[in-house]
Amino acid sequence: MSSIQPHYVINEQTMALIPVNHMDYQTIVLETDRTLYVKKTPLEIIERGCLDNFSSFVGRRESIQHLTGFSRKTPIPISIYRNIIAFPTHAFKNWDCCWIFYNHVDSIVEKLPNQSVILFKNGNQVAVEVPKLELLKQLERTNFILSIIKRRS
Fold first, then answer.
1. CA–CA distance, 100 with 62 (Å, rounded to integer)
2. Which end of the chain, N or C, is less surrounded by CB atoms within 10 Å?
3. What is the pLDDT of residues 5-20, one digit of tens each?
4. What pTM value is reported for the model?
5. Which residues contact 120 (CB under 8 A, 6 or more apart)?
């Protein structure tokens, strides 16, 4: 295991933020070429990512809700300039909520009726306790948000 990081900066290689119950770290960060262990929660990392990109999590969430009407499990554009957008697997306040970064998702495979595996373009995968159809809906919603961003840029 690599060293534990006190914080993490979201970037173009970020694929997923996975919550874990460990006494030394709270998030496993999957990047395209490495795995990191971070003391901050996934939500704290997302909030910091928004602030690093001239907005707040609340502001991004309210804006997306206003533009789309998506009120639950709202995908969040971390950086509209670098095309970094993530969607939650659960309600953002739910402890089990993973954040998945849209540009790295290759496909979703159903494991069980309420479990899925997210396959990333680099061959990595993450199993989540979410039905495949819900994840496909999240991908669709995220793609819709990206289309709005592109139209307005």
1. 20
2. C
3. 999 999 999 999 999 9
4. 0.96
5. 15, 16, 30, 32, 104, 105, 106, 126
